[in-house]
Amino acid sequence: MSEAVSTLDGWWSLHLLYNVDWTSLKTLEESKKDHLIAELQSFLEREEEVHKNKEGSYSFYNVTGQKADIILWMLRPTIDELNKLELEFNKLGIRDYLIPAYSYVSVIEMSGYLAKESDEDPYENPYVQSRLYPEVPKSKYICFYPMDKKRDLDDNWYMLPMEERRRLMYDHGMIGRQYAGKVKQFITGSQGLDKYEWGVTLFSDDMLEFKNIIYEMRFDEASARYGIFGDFYVGVHLPADELSDFFK
Ligand code: VOV
């Protein structure tokens, strides 16, 4: 049996994607619409407070294309908190006008492939902490997609020796490093939690950089040979103070 890599696990993650029921929303009285928008705004303001207090993080984007209209990504120390938060969101008035499009449950993950040998507790390391309990940026654009590593007879990631996987992840990281300052990546693990094995959530102020990095990685063995991808969701940042323009 190949050796499983150890992982460090951070905040729990929930991606919620919805389509807006524009037809029903259009028939709603203006004052009722204002009320729904204000309620959603105060939900997002509470998220912002949690984010500022470093007790979790979140992001809210307008998805491009017909797969969804909005994506809400929330991070919290426990899955129980996310569960409660989802319920809170479901009880908002605007939720009656949102049709679930997709959801993804996972947990922020760092694999040990490139970890240095050390006696210190990695969870006490400030760099590790910044990765496991991250401040999600408010970049102009988001790109989210789930992915697997292949388990075919000839190309089976999980049957590769540890050293080979380490080499492949090193090469992968070297490509990623060229995008420092251009693309911020968050990898969440979802083995046993959702349909795919990882969620990839990227942020950038230039939408083209998503295409650049993902295309370049396609030629790298870790993706070229072993990557299997779900749907891609891209979108534009939707600040709380622009909700009125968005919904009206
Ligand atoms: C900004 C770019 C960027 C950078 C710097 C980066 C670096 C790194 C490093 C150093 C490591 C390994 C250690 C760790 O931290 O886990 C990883 C790990 C991982 N990555 Fe990555 N990745 C990036 C970006 C990046 C992208 C765009 C993708 C999607 C791949 C594609 O083809 O669409 C991705 C995927 C992953 C995954 C699924 C894992 C976990 C694999 C596993 O088997 O455990 N990643 N990644």
Automatic annotation (TrEMBL):
E.C. numbers: 1.3.98.5
Q: Which domain of life is it from?
A: Bacteria
Q: One GO BP annotation here?
A: heme B biosynthetic process
What GO molecular function terms would the record report?
Answer: heme binding; metal ion binding; oxidoreductase activity, acting on the CH-CH group of donors, oxygen as acceptor; peroxidase activity
Q: Report residues binding Fe-coproporphyrin III.
A: 131, 145-149, 172, 185, 223
Plastid found in the keyword field: no
User: Which cofactors does the annotated protein need, by name?
Assistant: Fe-coproporphyrin III
Tell me the protein family, please.
Answer: Belongs to the ChdC family. Type 1 subfamily.
What does this protein's UniProt record list under function? Involved in coproporphyrin-dependent heme b biosynthesis. Catalyzes the decarboxylation of Fe-coproporphyrin III (coproheme) to heme b (protoheme IX), the last step of the pathway. The reaction occurs in a stepwise manner with a three-propionate intermediate.
Return the protein name.
Coproheme decarboxylase
Native organism: Salinicoccus kekensis
Species classification: Bacteria, Bacillati, Bacillota, Bacilli, Bacillales
